[in-house]
Amino acid sequence: SEMCIRDRYQRRVHGIIRLRMAYYILGTSLIEGNEETTWTNICGKGFGVDAGHTEMAFKIFMEKEKFRSANVDSLIGLTEILQKLDVNLEGTIKKVEKQRRDLGSEWKIEINLTEGKMDREKYVAEFGWDDSKFPRTKSLPEIVHLLQDKINHLDNDIKKQTAEFMDIKTALTAIQKKQEGGFHSKDLTGTFIEANVEKNLFVHSHYLTTLIAIVGKNQKKQWLEGYEKLEENVIPRSSVCLGVTDNEGNQLYTVVVFRKNVDSFKVKARNSLKVYVREFEFNEKVYEDDKKKIVELHEKCTTTQTELAKTCEIIYSALFECVMHLKALRIHVECVLRWGVPPNYFMCIYRAPVGKEKKIIQNLIKIFIKTQEERAMYGTKEEIGEAEDYFPFILIPLGIGAKDLSLIHI
Description:
By secondary structure, the chain is of the alpha+beta class. It contains eleven helices and eleven strands.
């Protein structure tokens, strides 16, 4: 029946209708000590489907007896560690997923396995423990340590490459702003070159310097009549309209002042005439160098962005493998704590249409309670008035990508 389920899954993977689903990993006690009986009950009474023809749930085959045993204190400690690690991992993988989407371009989410790439939904449906990456010859604490190390390593890798990309992007933005911003901030050399403004209009000597005044369209008369009176050391009749106007009608004027009076002149122009005055030096070489730098940085930014997008895909894949193994390990540890050793529990992954999750949980509770009196003990925290949900089974949301993984129909 396992082959039948997987064949049906593979046949339907080319369908065109996708439903929003929430994914869960479920660990339960065995009904009548039998896995097939448990599976049949979960499918029939829990999901209302035939166990041999369901696409709502998938058994997890991971030979749980291969896990090394641990004492109760160790298991309790691992439960707390795994819960915290789970939260941190979800945060990390969500960050990587968002980053990849923000980088643009199409992204088909696939998991990179030794035998090749696999569609994420298929990987979830066919999940099995990978001893080559997390060998069960090691103790449970050692496996947890392997998971922690791998997650930290992946997180550091993406942070490093992201920082490199952001440095290039920041440098590009800064130099573009210098070339392409407004009159208040841009390098005006390019503007003056395009407008054929003569370089000899700009005086720069040991004592004198030329400033640029940004004069509003209704401020021309006020500026020309008032700029000489702002400071004693202003060169009379030195203000020349350069014939450059922006979209808001602001025009650029020169004004020559003594270097020692630059700061006070700028302040007085702003306070008295409401005119912004800035320093400027006509440097064609710097302007041309900046243009070349923009081209170089843009090419480098594009290349680095493509590389970062690829890295995000690779790291997302590795993190998703960690997610699945961590969730499965949590189920194993909590099931052993609840039902003892040797491991004697059933584990599967199921997906519920969004909005019907509670109904399925209620159905599952009915399957695993022995008496009607027990029913009041179990339910969501809202139903039983407790701080946490409490069920007669172990239920862990897959969490990562749960709402965008899809049940596919033909």
